[in-house]
Amino acid sequence: MATGLGSISLESPPANKISPSGWVAGRDGHDGKSLASSPEISVQAKKAGRRAPVHLTWEDLSVTAASESKTSSTAILAGVTGFARPGEVLAIMGPSGCGKTTLLDTLAGRLTQSMNRSGIILVNGQKQTLAYGTSAYVTQEDVLMTTLTVQEAIYYSAQLQLPDCMSGIQKRRRAEKVMVEMGLKDAMNTIIGGRSSKGVSGGQRRRVSICIEILTRPKLLFLDEPTSGLDSAASYHVMNIIVNQARRHCGTVIISIHQPSSEVFELFDNLCLLCSGTTVYFGPTSLTAQFFAANGFPCPQMRNPCDHFLRTINKDFDMNKNYVNKQNTKEAIDILTNSYNSSNIYQDVLSQVAQIRSMAGDLLKKGERAGFITQCLVLTRRSSVNMWRDLGYYRLRLLVYIIICLSIGTLFFDIGSDYGSIQARCSMLSYISGYLTFMAIGGFPSFVEDLKIFKRERLNGHYSAAAFTISNSISSLPFLLLISVVPAASSYYLTGLQTNPQHFAFFALIIYSSVIIVEGLMMIVAAVVPDFLMGIITGAGIQGWMILASGFFRLPRDMPKTLWVYPAYYIAFQRYATQGLYKNEFIGLTFPGSTGGTTITGIEIVRDIWQMQAGYSKWVDLLILLGMGILYRLLFWGVIRFGEGLIVRKPMPVKQKQNHIMEMSSLKIIEITG
User: Fold this and answer.
1) pTM, entire model
2) Containing structural domain, residue 251
3) What CATH number should be reported for the domain holding residue 268?
4) Where do transmembrane segments lie in this chain (predicted)?
5) Residues 6 or more apart from 650 whose CB is under 8 A from it?
């Protein structure tokens, strides 16, 4: 075998026939040009009612990230070129930090706008956005609803992703089929589990994540570390299913994988081997070992080829010379990179990219999913189940609320109607209003988990942001009513406030409205600060500021005009809650004055002592609170919609200098001889 770097001659393995173009014949006997690349296949797919296959190419793709000082940038990908074709599986491999996930995110349109990128990404030879139903992405982290069973998680997802034209029975059968294919039949009724409950194993969670994204049989599937957490047998089983589905349904599959077993590696059609953001090798997996051997890095016998490839190019632990030929890793990487860039394999890549790019491919059409009403109903039902089963969402808070309100009731028991009871009433009402709303931060971890699930499902197009906002709001209302009315009733009647049912109903409505507002506020905080500790601190700070501006700790006329009156006093929902509670309790009552023989009316207490707005009804305060509750939910919807805009979803812009790809592809290609 020749070891020259300019052109290499590789002996082809007997199991694979090398086509005249130098590309390895596929396992189905066709040459490197996928069966789906021909126009006839697209026509047949259209006639059969199936979505057209997807050809994906990327040329001279570079991604940089700004440093913390923002004076320089770090290159994550540097001039990467490649392609993925229908019916084939492309594996992206490399050491940790080489840019595997970044390349996957870039191809899937998931880079944030803080990343600088250049190059060309084409789908079926055209610049177009990946639409729902044509692509799916399985993330490296398994973000699942921990309170659901495996069957529930997949079936709820099927109801959301599959169109309304499919019956419930058909959707359930589709869900059961993918569960059986992924070996989850015995775990169907097992809780997924999470931080507070034990459930399925890590490998089973991984398979649930994959099941959810292959329900729609997407034509383009991205998987980030799909075998993480799986043993070797499960890894092979899962990957074999994915590969077979890709070939059966003419799908295009791109995966990033760290260190597959030799059996899993043999399932892949093509390999993209990265190191420090550059391409070390892109080509048929069957030629990878020959490429390394031709450049002086043969794979030792009885060793997993993937282990050999990664060990050769991993410079993180480059303390000793290369274990094969005593060269350091940097030299080995330079040799392999230079050899690849000057080889006929690279020329074949350019030729394939140019050929696919010149195809007059089909524009991707958006797939069908459940209608908006169905989305709202399914999400509401799923969210209600999650809220009921999650101990930290509402049940634990209900217990704490009852204990605290019973404590308040005993502390202010039978408060009386003397002059001293005026201050006691005000303190008790302000504390209940402030505490019950402030403790909404207890549900913040659950809010963060909900938003993680929303982000994953929303990026894959399962449902709209509006459907999520509406369903989350509706499903929370019964639970918020429960944790508002039950604790409040215990303290209300123990303290001896006005026993008229209308007064208690208004008292409960004020508390209920306030809790709704704070839930919306904490959801906004969770969307902006998706970190448990920082989010709780932020939410507590905002609520503490609003409590200070409520008019209880400092009378309105004594507050500094700047900041505290304008705008704090007018935008703090605690002001309207306290004002409504005071009007509800005091107006209509008369108390003895501070000196003998005098009296003071409730309206005087509200207007003169506490300096509150008494010119309008208490019901106006309630309406203001209800309006704030709606406003906060609309703000939450706006925040998550704005967050979607920070993800790059547009086609990659074309740079003029990219024309050299087309020019290089016209060069004479050196044959790989057998």
Assistant:
1) 0.84
2) 35-134+218-367
3) 3.40.50.300
4) 398-416, 428-448, 468-494, 506-526, 532-553, 619-640
5) 109, 129
